[in-house]
Amino acid sequence: MFASMAIPVNDPEHGFCRDCLRLQSGPVRRCERCGSPRLARHAELYGLHLAHIDCDAFYAAVEKRDNPALRDKPVIIGGGKRGVVSTACYIARIQGVRSAMPMFKALEACPEAIVIKPDMEKYVRVGREVRAMMQALTPLVEPISIDEAFLDLAGTERLHGLPPALVLARFALQVEKEIGITVSTGLSYCKFLAKVASDFRKPRGFSIIGEVEAQEFLAEQPVTLIWGVGKAFAAVLERDGIRLIGQLQRMERNELMRRYGTMGDRLYHLARGEDDRRIHADRDTKSVSAETTFDMDLASADDLVPVLRSLSEKVAARLRKAGLAGRTVVLKLKSADFKIRTRNRQLGDPTRLADRIFSTGLDLLRREMDGTRYRLLGIGVSDISDDGKADPPDLVDVQARKRALAEGAIDALRDKFGGKAVETGYTFGKGHRGRPARPDEDEGPEVQHPWERI
């Protein structure tokens, strides 16, 4: 099957060692060469080529890499007491800390944790290094977020001289050695199950779900394993007496669609391990945004407007750097009782200018300043396109072009001298880039892609 490979292929039920890549000659419990118990073996080991790779506790792993003194300590990446957990290392997770958990609850669960404010610039840089290593394996890399992606390794055996399973194991070792963090890999015949497999046995996991075993495996899993079945929809299924995927497998497609609409069609196919989606290397950007969580709830324009201006400048800079523009401005607010408000407005033309993003967001914000106190403010743009048609000349607003040129000049100064080099009148004297009381930023990657967990 792999006659051109540099090494012979062994019995897939014997597999290979994930630490030294030695092929095993028999059904041993430990590697015949190095003694490691981390053996990869599966009946379909050498026939599968769709993979999902996920960096383990990515933000925390990068911080531990850069500060070895943190290695054996619980680490939480996130804001202050008013923020949320961006990620937590596995030591903290053992004590109950979870992503998106309010910080005060995380510190109640793990009071000895070391809290580090997110350094998104650093995480994006490391994420790009991992991405470049993925793209050296195959051109079919579909990023899902800053630290995870799908890969299709079909047809790469001749290039690498190895089957996909061994290529992925070697990749994991290279990431550990060259970048200093760990990854977990899921290998399967479809995207849904590759993603499911990568979540097993973290960290440093390498899990396989084959086509022969898929339905039997899924039958015993909770319905929440299926993407789109969150707490609310799981409660709907629970009321209908459906808790396990196996129950869905016994239902007809028409019945599921009658009960749950288009979601019923998804339930029918994914419950049976049917997912024909392909890996797409070029993915359209869905939105670009920035948000911040305050140390104290804020309600006044004096407090909120400078923050809105600062975030608008950040979004605009990211758009220009990526060569993108957005036509719909989206305002996000979270009130003191954790209720989220989102408001949006479509522009006549796509924009990449902070001035237009801010002025539109400001109009939306003024409508929400009704005495409500807010713990979070965010601004972003959607309906993304390239910037070729962004911000055409405005015959009414003759100063628009001058402001656009000024923003480009500000970008250059900030790139050279740092983000604090230039401030506008909205943010000057208002704290760090307009943020009162040093609020904690809960930012995503520079550009957000459509989220598909399956």
From TrEMBL:
The active site is at E148. Gene3D superfamilies: 3.30.70.270, 3.40.1170.60, 5' to 3' exonuclease, C-terminal subdomain, DNA polymerase, Y-family, little finger domain. Coiled coil: none annotated. Residues 50-230 form the UmuC domain. Residues 425-454 are annotated as: Disordered. It catalyses: DNA(n) + a 2'-deoxyribonucleoside 5'-triphosphate = DNA(n+1) + diphosphate. Its cofactor is Mg(2+). Keywords: Cytoplasm, DNA damage, DNA repair, DNA replication, DNA-binding, DNA-directed DNA polymerase, Magnesium, Metal-binding, Mutator protein, Nucleotidyltransferase, Transferase. SUPFAM superfamilies: DNA/RNA polymerases, Lesion bypass DNA polymerase (Y-family), little finger domain. Mg(2+) binds at D54, D147. Binds 2 magnesium ions per subunit. It is found in: Cytoplasm. InterPro entries: DNA/RNA_pol_sf, DNA_pol_Y-fam_lit_finger_sf, DNA_pol_Y-fam_little_finger, DNA_polymerase-Y, DNApol_IV, Rev_trsase/Diguanyl_cyclase, UmuC. The record marks Y59 as: Substrate discrimination. Its main location: cytoplasm. One of its GO terms (molecular function) is DNA-directed DNA polymerase activity. Its EC number is 2.7.7.7. CDD domains: PolY_Pol_IV_kappa. It holds the Pfam family IMS. It comes from the Bacteria. NCBIfam families: PRK02406.1 (NF002677), PRK02794.1 (NF002751). Belongs to the DNA polymerase type-Y family. Poorly processive, error-prone DNA polymerase involved in untargeted mutagenesis. Copies undamaged DNA at stalled replication forks, which arise in vivo from mismatched or misaligned primer ends. These misaligned primers can be extended by PolIV. Exhibits no 3'-5' exonuclease (proofreading) activity. May be involved in translesional synthesis, in conjunction with the beta clamp from PolIII. Monomer. This is DNA polymerase IV. The gene is dinB.
